[in-house]
Design a protein that fits this description.
Layout (H helix, E strand, L loop, with lengths): L1 E4 L12 E3 L2 H8 L5 E3 L2 H33 L2 E6 L6 E6 L1 H10 L9 E2 L4 E3 L1 E8 L5 E10 L1
Parallel strand pairs: 4-9
Antiparallel strand pairs: 1-2, 1-3, 5-7, 6-8, 8-9
C-alpha cells in the first residue's frame, strides 16, 4: 500500500514522502496514529495545507523561544540542599528541582528540556542548559547552597 507521511518518522522518512509499506502496517499502525495518509490526490492537497500550518506554527514557536532565551540568560536560581560533612549534599540536584525553582521565578519550563551534563553533587555555581527549541539553547546559572 502506498502512503504519504504526515510526520517525520525515523524508520520510514520525512514529511510528504510517498512510501510503499505492507497493508497491515499502514491500516493498523500508520493511519490510526495519524503518521500517514493513504496515497491519493486529495490527501496530497491536504498534506500541503498541513505543511503550511506547521511552518507557521514553528515560526511562532521559534520567535517565542528566542525571546524566552534572552530572558533566561539573565536569570539565576538557588537550590537549597541538605549537606553532610565536607559539604557533600545528600542525593543530587535534578532537572525537576531546577524546573520548580524556575517556576517560582515565573518561567514555566518543562523539566525534560533541562539538560544537566554531569550530576550536581556538591555545593557551588553551575551552568545548566535549557533546550527551548531545536536550535535555541539557553544557559541558566544555578546556585547550589546549604539549606
Amino acid at each position: 500500500m502506498k502512503v504519504i507521511l504526515r510526520k517525520n518518522f525515523e524508520q520510514l522518512g520525512q514529511i510528504g514522502e510517498i512510501i510503499d509499506v505492507k497493508d497491515g502496517y499502514a491500516r493498523n499502525f500508520l493511519i490510526p496514529r495519524q503518521i500517514a495518509y493513504p496515497a491519493h490526490a486529495g490527501n496530497l492537497r491536504a498534506l500541503e495545507e498541513e505543511k503550511k500550518q506547521l511552518a507557521n506554527k514553528e515560526a511562532k514557536e521559534l520567535e517565542i523561544a528566542n525571546s524566552l532565551s534572552g530572558e533566561l540568560e539573565k536569570v539565576s536560581v538557588t537550590i537549597p540542599m541538605k549537606v553532610g560533612e565536607d559539604d557533600k549534599i545528600f542525593g543530587s540536584v535534578t532537572s525537576k528541582m531546577i524546573a520548580d525553582a524556575l517556576k517560582d521565578k515565573g518561567y514555566d519550563i518543562d523539566h525534560r528540556k533541562i539538560e544537566i551534563d554531569e550530576p550536581i553533587k556538591s555545593l557551588g555555581i553551575y551552568s545548566v542548559n535549557v533546550k527551548l527549541f531545536h536550535d535555541v539553547i539557553s544557559v541558566v546559572k544555578t546556585w547550589v547552597v546549604r539549606e
